[in-house]
Amino acid sequence: EKGGYDSFMEKEINEQPKAVEDTLLGRTDASGQLTLDELRIDPEELKNTSKIIVLACGTAAYAGHVAKYAIEHWCRIPVEVELAHEFRYRDPIIDENTLVVSISQSGETMDTLMAVRYAKEQGARTLSICNTNGSTIPRESDAVLYLHAGPEIAVASTKAFLAMIAASYLLGLYLAQLRGQLFREEIKDILADLHKIPAKIQKILDSSEDIKALARAMKDTPSVLFLGRHVGFPVALEGALKLKELAYIHAEGFAAGELKHGPIALIEQDQPVFVVVPSPRGRDSLHSKVVSNIQEVRARGAKTITVAEAGDDAVREFSETVFFVPETSPLLMPLLTTVPLQIFACALAAEKGYDVDQPRNLAKSVTVE
Ligand code: F6R
């Protein structure tokens, strides 16, 4: 049932092209308009959304971070992302024009469920992005957008993460369409880019031998840092979480801009630092600022490992190792840049002889608060 792979995790990493494809499937009509009728919330109500609060835990919360960048950019609706277990305890500001979007693979995470219930009591509309059909969170929400990524067996989330991000993009584009915030052609172009993602993920999977070799060579490393900026920031957090969960290595993700405000003090000779580099075609100066960060840590002895867009030759000079991912539009990059980090964590843990499907102390679905 592992489909010839050594673990469910490897199988699920390799299923990601299909998972993303299935999340996108059947959500546009013949004219290219997004059709999320399944949402069951009156489009007029959705149109009046004045604020979005994304609630989730762990990996799902990182998908929420990515969603914030995309939805704010496309829809001009303010988006807050909050860990579900923090939400109820801070007297959040909610009204009937607040859309609370929960993200959960299992649909049973108690922290997320309790936060959704609280939001509902306070009068918010609730929308669930979820992978598990008929689970509690979607049942208790006003609307649901299912991932259709297929069952995820390994405790550490991989394909559900990419599917959550893809579903968040669909939601963002749908809201932009309802509100007339983007031109039809713009939405069509972004959807076309999204539909090209599965083949690009496949390309990364097909050339993953170098990442696995690096992981094997690094099996005794005591600590790994991950830097990212813009949508690469949540990817860095996810890369660090995967390594903690699977390989029990101290790993931390930072916003690259935060480096000089503290974390750079951690850099010493041979400290491995992964850098998720933004697209050179994205926002002005973002790329060059991150390239400067690579130089800064390298000058202090770090072993720099970069994940960059194909053709981004500026990073080569300052990187010990570079993993290139295919080009896509800057906001969609997490669907690609996450993959090498998952492969890295999985291969490193396997090399250490750990059970990657059932890491110690963790459960697939956390049904206690
Ligand atoms: C990370 C991981 C956890 C879950 C979190 C939320 O690999 O598995 O961080 O992402 O417990 O779970 P769901 O998505 O089921 O609500």
UniProtKB/TrEMBL annotation:
Coiled coil: none annotated. It is found in: Cytoplasm. The keyword Cell division does not apply. Residues 42-181, 214-359 form the SIS domain. It is an enzyme of class 2 (transferase). The keyword ATP-binding does not apply. It catalyses: D-fructose 6-phosphate + L-glutamine = D-glucosamine 6-phosphate + L-glutamate. Keywords: Aminotransferase, Cytoplasm, Glutamine amidotransferase, Repeat, Transferase. One of its GO terms (molecular function) is glutamine-fructose-6-phosphate transaminase (isomerizing) activity. It comes from the Bacteria. The active site is at K364. Its EC number is 2.6.1.16. Homodimer. Catalyzes the first step in hexosamine metabolism, converting fructose-6P into glucosamine-6P using glutamine as a nitrogen source. This is Glutamine--fructose-6-phosphate aminotransferase [isomerizing]. The gene is glmS.
